[in-house]
Amino acid sequence: TNSISSNLQHLYILKQFFNTMACTLDRTNPLGGLPPKHCLNGGYKPVFTDRLLLEEALQFCKTSLEDNLKHNVNLVRVSAPLFVTRASGFNDNLNGTERPATFEPRDFPGVHLEVPFSLAKWKRWALHYYKVEAGKGIVTDFRGLRCDDDVDYTHSLYVDQFDWEKHIAPADRNVEYLKTTVTAIYKALYDTEQAVCKKYGIEPYLPEEITFATSDDMIKEHPHATPKGRENILCEKYKAVFFIGIGGMKEDGSLRHDGRAPDYDDWITERADGGFGLNGDLLVWNPVLKQSFELSSMGIRVNPEVLLKQLDLCHVPERKSFVWHKMLLDGTLPQTIGGGIGQSRTCQFLLRACHIGEVQHGWYNPAEVEILKKDGINLLGLGEFDADPLAKSA
What is the pTM of this model? Predict the structure, then answer.
């Protein structure tokens, strides 16, 4: 009975959350994961038809972006875990509602291991572990699973991203430092697009400079627009935007603009402009999909004071007893800024693909896969099957 009640509560929270987040999946449509209508029925032609050339391009995109990131942000590549223990508190809670992929080792019943959603907490510990000095950071080639993520043309159950984290001084916990870092990351993306387009004969799209905006101002200017609608307005106008202030609630109790877990990004600190939050999303206008397109989420991380406040606001004060949280509260972990840059999402944008499955081996709605296949849009590894043999388990 307790399990049923817990599951129902989980579904209710998810429903409330999805009603106020910026997303692309139409949950009222059984085929809501398909790309926009203008991409179907011959409206879209893939840039690559040679699969090996596509794989070469994917590798070039990722290698170029990683090299540019390391140079621009002063990062060093380190290895990363594929799973962490539940008791450690090292897994991220993303929006605070998702279920992790969990398993028990055969010979250790009762030990719960989780595939991370991202490495936001682990990376901060890693800076301490590797004794990284202030002004320098790390980047990882992260692979994970997100069981509760959308499965559509921009989302997958499988996530691959460049997870990065940088040690900063306490005095750097301000919006100016955030903007400086965003500018360096955007330059890495811009330079990568220039190189990819030159190599493969694709028309460049990104502007040389990124525009900064705040969720607080956009809510005032467009009070009746959805979060996705506000993103579309900005991105269509400026082409590349960093949207400051993600997480937290409006006065009516609804999400301000998407959700954030309480224990990595700082989404409550008041800025000089009167808004709140030292985090944000890097968005571009996707010329193929004709909509805003998130490439990265990042922010200045919580300090002990902000952590305690955000845990209370999210009604999860018990997390203070986790190993990771104790290390932050006692000053063991450094002050940091960090984020993740989606590898497949970035490749989808750079290579002008209309579906993320064109640049990533994943699992998608078999009915949608068949429709895409008939339209000449083959997803990696799935386009050769009449039906997905793994869609249902015996």
Answer: 0.89
